[in-house]
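Re: [ENG-882] Designed sequences occasionally contain unexpected residues at chain ends

Forwarding the minimal case from QA. Structure tokens:
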């Protein structure tokens, strides 16, 4: 079994960066939830903040990479128009979806939402990263800021999950090959 370059880019976009996002999100969430001055020694607090900065940076970088690869590498292949009179739509996923009324909703609804929600994930992740770098060890003293960070990370995760599920369904119905 060999992958085409399009399949590689699609796998990097969805699976590799998506998996990395989930992995580092889990780490960041655990670190935020245990980032209380009463639970940690000064050395433990410094270590957890360093790990949180690393996790937050990876989340933001991976989400931006996923959006850019999806928007500027994979999506143009998805939306490419077939030549006039062409009946073989195998290489034209958008046209293949729209040609079948039973699955056209995956483009009309799924891809439209995927495009719009997808851009929110790195924006929220970057805002969370700003909070992590700006407040650092002071997050342990500010419960409200920790909860704000927790909510921002959870919103980014839920949005990324919705986008990922929509992408998986669309790819299942009309893969970029």
């Amino acid at each position: 079994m060999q992958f085409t370059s399009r399949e590689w880019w699609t796998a990097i976009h969805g699976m590799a960066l998506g998996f990395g996002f989930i992995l580092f999100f889990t780490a960041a969430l655990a670190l935020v939830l245990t980032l209380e001055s009463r639970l940690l020694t000064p050395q433990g607090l410094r270590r957890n903040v360093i790990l949180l900065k690393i996790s937050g940076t990876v989340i933001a970088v991976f989400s931006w990479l996923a959006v850019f690869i999806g928007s500027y590498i994979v999506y143009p292949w998805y939306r490419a128009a077939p030549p006039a009179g062409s009946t073989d739509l195998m290489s034209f996923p958008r046209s293949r979806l729209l040609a079948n009324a039973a699955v056209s909703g995956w483009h009309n609804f799924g891809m439209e939402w995927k495009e719009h929600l997808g851009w929110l994930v790195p924006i929220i992740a970057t805002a969370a990263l700003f909070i992590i770098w700006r407040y650092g060890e002071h997050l342990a003293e500010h419960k409200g800021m920790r909860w704000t960070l927790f909510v921002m990370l959870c919103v980014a995760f839920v949005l990324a999950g919705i986008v990922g599920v929509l992408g998986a369904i669309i790819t299942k119905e009309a893969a970029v090959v």
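QA comment: On inspection the terminal residues look reasonable. Helices lie at 5-33, 42-79, 93-99, 104-135, 143-173. Proposing we downgrade this to a documentation issue.
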